[in-house]
Structure prediction request, 61 residues.
Amino acid sequence: NSITEHAENNQNIGIQINQDQLMADFLKEKQNTISLQQETIQVLKITITVLQDEIERLKTM
Prediction:
């Protein structure tokens, strides 16, 4: 009985560690996605600025 309980406890601990690792991996990927989105936003802001400048230049022609 005690051996069985130990085995079950060890298995549960293993499952918990695996779940924690999966969650950590998921959160890391989520953070990477957010970082890429922030970089994309910065590029888009620059693009908008360049386009606004071009519009102003064309207006004066």
Summary: The radius of gyration is 26 Å. The chain has a mean pLDDT of 97. The first helix runs from residue 2 to 59. DSSP finds one helix and no strands in the chain.
